[in-house]
């Protein structure tokens, strides 16, 4: 009845050809790496060679969605098509975080690749500013930046405050999240990171850089902060939550409530409405 395709390039090109050959309509979901200016690793490299061919992929789609308000805004600067935001989602049962409480010491957590995009060395600079505070930091993942990251942590004499569990299973990520307090994301660019949604569903306060879909997840000053790339701004925000346990609990509970906007059931219904509309139009 229809094709639901993720990313205009390369998968959208296949859907476009299939539509020409069979008449089957397609719904395009854009994430970020398929939008000019979205992911520098892609859009400033090979993507520029295919960009002239992408407008027809977007225009021929029966419907276009993006995973965040930021992605929609960026796409609208290049492609003149109607776009609906349908976010990434978390499993409904992921919201069963149990009793929300603070850890002692307050636990900060990150999950992802240790690469320049994630900007983890900046995070170490931030935490060095509040080294005397009652915190620990768990960095889940691996990557090319790890040796430099560890060296920086050792140079600041912070080794006792950091934990590196490496790559762990998705269930173990959730388990660590539920035993944490603050999710940190200092990335240089993002679409709508699933780790951020998992942090919401686990009842974590969120500190994020001004990137991607985090604006949709963070209610400024209520469940977290969207912050500029300034060490002082980050360190003061962290210190404020570490020093005020009741406020931290309020932020965590707000995150858990906000996560209900991103469940599979709710997001699935949005896609279902789009699919039904497209199929109904085709049958006319």
From N to C, what is the helix and strand string? EHEHHHEHEEHEHEHEHEHEHHH
* Integer average pLDDT: 92
Q: What best-fitting shape do the alpha-carbon axes yield? A: elongated
Number of strands: 10
What composes the largest sheet? 6 strands, parallel
Bin the helical content: 40-55%
Using the CA coordinates, give the radius of gyration: 20 Å
Low-confidence stretches: none
Strand order of the largest sheet: 7-6-5-8-9-10
Provide the structure class.
alpha/beta
Molecular structure report:
With 284 residues, the protein is of the alpha/beta class. Strand 3 (63-66), helix 5 and strand 4 form a beta-alpha-beta unit. It contains 13 helices and 10 strands. The chain has a 6-stranded parallel beta sheet, sandwiched between helices.
Structure characteristics:
16% strand, alpha/beta, 284 residues
Q: Layout of helices and strands, plus pairs?
A:
Blueprint: E1 3-6, H1 8-22, E2 26-30, H2 40-43, H3 47-50, H4 54-59, E3 63-66, H5 69-76, E4 84-85, E5 106-111, H6 120-129, E6 135-140, H7 146-155, E7 162-166, H8 170-178, E8 182-185, H9 194-201, E9 205-209, H10 214-217, E10 224-227, H11 231-243, H12 245-258, H13 264-283
Parallel strand pairs: 1-2, 2-3, 3-4, 5-6, 5-8, 6-7, 8-9, 9-10
Helix pairs in contact: 6-11
């Amino acid at each position: 009845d229809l094709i639901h395709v993720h990313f205009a390039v390369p998968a959208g090109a296949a859907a476009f050809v299939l539509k020409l050959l069979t008449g089957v309509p397609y719904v395009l979901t854009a994430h970020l790496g398929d939008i000019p200016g979205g992911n520098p690793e892609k859009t400033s490299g090979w993507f520029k060679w295919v960009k002239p061919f992408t407008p027809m992929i977007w225009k021929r789609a029966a419907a276009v969605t993006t995973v965040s308000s930021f992605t929609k805004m960026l796409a609208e600067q290049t492609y003149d098509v109607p776009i609906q935001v349908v976010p990434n989602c978390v499993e409904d049962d992921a919201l069963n975080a149990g009793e929300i409480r603070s850890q002692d010491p307050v636990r900060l957590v990150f999950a992802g690749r240790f690469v320049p995009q994630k900007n983890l060395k900046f995070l170490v600079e931030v935490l060095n500013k509040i080294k005397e505070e009652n915190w620990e930091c768990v960095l889940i993942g691996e990557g090319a930046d790890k040796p430099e990251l560890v060296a920086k942590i050792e140079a600041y004499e912070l080794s006792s405050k950091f934990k590196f569990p490496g790559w762990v299973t998705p269930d173990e990520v959730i388990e660590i999240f539920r035993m944490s307090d603050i999710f940190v994301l200092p990335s240089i660019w993002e679409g709508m990171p699933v780790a951020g949604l998992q942090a919401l569903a686990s009842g974590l306060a969120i500190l994020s850089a001004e990137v991607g879909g985090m604006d949709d997840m963070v209610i400024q000053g209520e469940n977290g902060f969207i912050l500029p790339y300034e060490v002082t701004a980050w360190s003061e925000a962290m210190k404020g939550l570490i020093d005020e346990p009741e406020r931290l609990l309020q932020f965590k509970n707000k995150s858990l409530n906000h996560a209900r906007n991103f469940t599979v059931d709710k997001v699935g219904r949005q896609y279902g409405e789009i699919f039904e509309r497209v199929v109904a139009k085709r049958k006319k």
